[in-house]
Amino acid sequence: MAKFTPMMQQYMDTKAQAPDALLFFRLGDFYELFFDDAVTAARELEITLTGRGSGSDEKIPMCGVPHHSAENYVLRLVEKGYKVAICDQVEDASAAKGIVRREIVRVVTPGTVMESKALQEKANLYLASIVHKDGVFGVSFCDLSTGELLVVEHGDEQAMLDEMVCYQPAEVVVPAGEAGSEYAVTVQELLRTVLTAGGEKSHRHDRASETLLGHFGVISVESFGLADHPLAVSAAGMLLSYLQSTQKRSLSHLKMPSYITSDEYMTLDAFSRRNLELIETLRDKSKHGALLGLLDETVTAMGGRLLRRFVERPLANKQRIEERLDAVGELNDHLLLREDVRQLLDLVYDLERLVARVAYGSANARDLQAIGSSLSILPHLKERLGGTAVGLLQNIAGRIEDFGPVVDLIERAVVDEPPVSLKDGGVIRDGFDEYLDTLKQASREGKQWIANLEATEREKTGIKSLKVGFNKVFGYYIEVSRTNVQYVPDTYERKQTLTNGERYVTPELKEKESLILEAEEKLLDLEYQTFVGVRDEVATWLAKIQQAAEAIALTDVLQSLATVSAKRRYVRPMIATDDRIVITEGRHPVVEAMLKGEPFVANDTLLDNGGHQISLITGPNMAGKSTYMRQVALIVLLAQMGSFVPADHAEIGIVDRVFTRIGASDDLAGGQSTFMVEMVELANILHHATPKSLIILDEIGRGTSTFDGISIAQAVVEFLHQNPQVGAKTLFATHYHELTEFTKTFVGVRHYSTHVQEQGDGIVFLRKILPQAADRSYGIQVAKLAGLPQEVLARAREILAELEHGKPESKLVVYKQKDELGGAMILRDDVVREAATAYETEAPAAASVKKKPAKEASPSLQLSLFADGAGEHPVVEELRTLDVMKLTPLDAMNLLYQLQQKARGSEA
């Protein structure tokens, strides 16, 4: 075993405490890294890798960064997913005996960043934890920068994953030994997040409870409302234990755990969040062009973060929705009130994060000044909101306390323009502390004497170039150029020889220097301690300031929604008590805003759980089908957020979930084709939809062969319509015009199409949704608009004419409508069989033969292929031995043609 120097042995002992982190080890003015940490840091930070003697025979890898700029390097490493342990000197080097004692003072991880430069103003940074037992998941989320602590339990993995997607944690803590478990790997792959092992046994319920109760000073988890949620307690306790072990400082700003009541909110899965472009666009991941970007008229960072949560978690509680709508309506209708509120909010800083830094012990004088300035605005805001007759606005006003004592303390203690660093002094205002003022006076008088010394000595010696200076090595000195050395008095004592002159001191200068430096040393230390005392006093107001910050954030979101509503001519939706969705002249909020003056073609919508359950929408590409369907989903989302909506009138029955399957995408890394991704998303929808859900389906089945695609599409529509456990309101866009037969048989299926006007061999998209079926898809006309070469278009028209003239005539197999459909269909054997028999395709030779009406469906939901006497036909034996499940649609069509020819031959 290599023998190390005492300093390197200290490093090795410290590194053993944080084996999974890069250790920044303080040596003088640098943080040094050694061994593999140095190799990794040098590569990631692009700094020089060197070597150092360690007492052993070999030099060890080493690199370092200046301590004054270490924060930037630490954040760069954390952004890349690394953890960084900061090891500092914890005793005065001058008082140390032997090696200076060093300790890890903090471990910075992707989920525990507190530095403002690394945080997005209007986005939370969450750390999450998961505990799994017997199929139940306990989940906890914490934003260390604001103190928010949330918990929830879910009974299935998909619900847990949906929750994780909503909060997008930068780091997820799981119990020790479970990082490789199936659920943990799924979370890591889905979120592209950092997975961390929690402390040994810290997730055990008894230990987790003890951690929570000890931190918050309560005697039972019933104080948190978590008595019936043991796994939520385990997750929160493990997360808090992890924070305590990594941050190693006060976490008093953490709020008590708040349980996420799932049935209070609409659920949105990852696919729907992406497809509806709620937070960012699909194309370039930009906020501009997403719903959040349109709605964000907030003027505070706190409001911006809360608005994002509004968008991601619409309400499912009618009373709460109406309360928000009342407040938005008041601010929408009263311009002066809205503008006054906006102007006041614009003067408020990010109180949530500022007060968190106060409790954390990292707030500087400018932070305190920002807190005092913000709190001084609140009485005016309280007065304006309290003067309204709206319950929610009055409630907000009631949550704002009188912060006069805090404002007065900060104004008396902190200078008007304090420096960034507390170590530089100049933070405490004159008159706040008598002894501090005495030291300041002594320092000022000493420095003034030094300043006068230069003029006095020039006059006394006659040396015009004489200068008085100072540096940290030699202190104060008198500098004389070499040409004037002969005029230096005998009382000067040589201090340092330079190339072009000499430096001297005098007994009186040394005496003054001693007094000044002693006063400044005491001054800096006392001023820092005084500031810490003021900061601690502000921290005693922590809970009340956090409550006020929440009120300010909510006010900002409400005024933002009102501002957008007034600007965009939105109307208040009526929240219905039944399941209908009625929209008159509805508009897509984002598309309308981006048209820049061009009128948006509005459309009506009627959906319910009865005669208008499913809307089948046909028409060419680019005609507006996807825009229309998305706008319906977004109007529902806006209404349940508590926002006004882009329509002339809207009645919205509360929706529990919005599902979308839109567009084509693949997952090559995961080995999934475009069609497989489509089927995975579709399976999620059909397994989790309820009669209170809204489903948006766009071109289901287009990723496979025509017959397969039509079969799947038909089976899906039947499943949605006939399964009473699903029965969701559905908008279904398709190019399969054969599906229009459903409107003749199923009461709840309605037919719509996008209006297109033909002009010569071209088309004009009118963007209007009409209650009728489209007879063509206009694919070649759309290709022309896209700019395909003329020879390609001409040839395509020729081929289309040939196909239309000679194609086999086909018809949809119509199933008898039933009240019930046994079992879930999608992606199971019964649906595969259903889809495989969904079409009865006739041979080209029989295309001109008039079709006989199909018989009524049997209880198996499939029409009989044969008449009552068909059992004696010679073809029957061949059919009986046939394994239809092994046939492709094309094989089935060819075989049917052969059997038909045999049947006709026997008839002849």
From TrEMBL:
Gene name tied to this protein: mutS
SUPFAM superfamilies, sorted: DNA repair protein MutS, domain I, DNA repair protein MutS, domain II, DNA repair protein MutS, domain III, P-loop containing nucleoside triphosphate hydrolases
Location of the DNA mismatch repair proteins mutS family domain: 693-709
Keyword annotations: ATP-binding, DNA damage, DNA repair, DNA-binding, Nucleotide-binding
InterPro entries the record matches: DNA_mismatch_repair_MutS (IPR005748), DNA_mismatch_repair_MutS-lik_N (IPR007695), DNA_mismatch_repair_MutS/MSH (IPR017261), DNA_mismatch_repair_MutS_C (IPR000432), DNA_mismatch_repair_MutS_clamp (IPR007861), DNA_mismatch_repair_MutS_core (IPR007696), DNA_mismatch_repair_MutS_N (IPR016151), DNA_mismatch_repair_MutS_sf (IPR036187)
Domain of life: Bacteria
The name this protein goes by in its record: DNA mismatch repair protein MutS
Protein's organism: Tumebacillus avium
Protein family per UniProt: Belongs to the DNA mismatch repair MutS family.
Binding site residues for ATP: 619-626
Record GO cellular component, one term: cytosol
